[in-house]
Specification:
The chain is an alpha+beta fold. It has two domains: 96 residues, no CATH class; 113 residues, no CATH class. The protein is built from five helices and 16 strands. The strands form four sheets. It has a five-stranded mixed beta sheet with strand order 1-6-5-4-7. Strands 9-14-13-12-15 form a five-stranded mixed beta sheet. A hairpin with a 2-residue loop joins strand 4 and strand 5. The radius of gyration is 26 Å and the shape is elongated. It starts with 11 loop residues before the first helix and ends with a helix.
């Protein structure tokens, strides 16, 4: 989504003050003639900018670049705070080339190390922000359905690897992996079901929770506002977690439920 700016354009000095909230470690200043490696081929970048490019920015493939009021180009991995700083400084989006966004990397070892570190930091920040955004969708669904915390001991099995009869392996979907939400999980918030002595439900953050079925657990789900119907029940058709500690915990829970 492109950003629109209304009103008078902030001064060049204001723009620079906003962007300089980030240290030099947060942006890489591009220099004409910088050597890059493009899939094994060495090239030299030509970063001459036009007057019309000044005070503008753009992004491509997870990289953001801008040209300041003096015509200098800077680049960094794209993050929400970098977009926000540019917007607050009055930069306009549109039409500039974005270095390092199509597989090219600096050949200078120190600069490449800095860039890789910046990418890792941005990747983690973006993953956390996306995760929180996804969780908020689940929380809103739980609030709409008026479901509450469920009492008792339950296993959270998102991402858990299982094996069936010691051969076929699979994994339970995650509510979110920081990029995508589990398909169909949002609509299952507030639902529970049981199969072959196992009970499962999708909680207020979209997590799949499971336990051996007991009357106390059925009652706890009903009291918390959960409705029965139509969800898959992990561990109910002979599949077991491959993790030894988790399998031991599951076996202990099953033994306790039999008593």
């Amino acid at each position: 989504m492109r950003n629109k700016f209304e009103g008078a354009m902030p001064s060049k000095e204001h723009g620079e003050a906003e962007i300089e909230k980030f240290s030099s470690e947060k942006w890489v200043e591009m220099s004409s003639g910088m050597e890059i490696d493009y899939f094994g081929r060495k090239e030299q970048l030509q970063t001459t900018t036009d007057e019309k490019d000044r005070m503008s920015y753009d992004s491509n493939n997870g990289v953001i670049a801008f040209v300041d009021g003096e015509g200098r180009m800077r680049v960094a991995p794209a993050t929400s705070d970098r977009f926000r700083a540019l917007e607050e400084a009055g930069y306009k989006r549109g039409g500039i080339w974005v270095p390092f966004s199509n597989g090219e990397l600096p050949t200078d070892p120190a600069l490449r190390e800095q860039w890789e570190k910046m990418r890792e930091e941005a990747h983690e920040q973006n993953r956390k922000e996306t995760t929180e955004s996804h969780l908020n969708y689940y929380r809103a669904e739980a609030e709409k359905k008026q479901v509450k915390e469920v009492a008792g001991e339950w296993l959270t099995v998102d991402g858990v690897e299982t094996e069936w009869m010691g051969t076929e392996k699979s994994a339970v979907d995650r509510n979110t992996d920081g990029y995508n939400m589990a398909v169909g999980r949002l609509e299952k918030v507030g639902a529970y079901d049981s199969n072959n002595g196992v009970i499962a439900f999708v909680d207020g953050e979209g997590r799949m929770r499971v336990a051996p079925a007991t009357s106390d657990r059925f009652r706890a789900l009903e009291e918390a506002g959960y409705k029965r119907g139509g969800i898959w029940v992990p561990f109910s058709n002979g599949e077991l977690p491959t993790d030894p500690a988790l399998r031991e915990q599951w076996e202990k829970m099953r033994e306790e439920a039999r008593q």
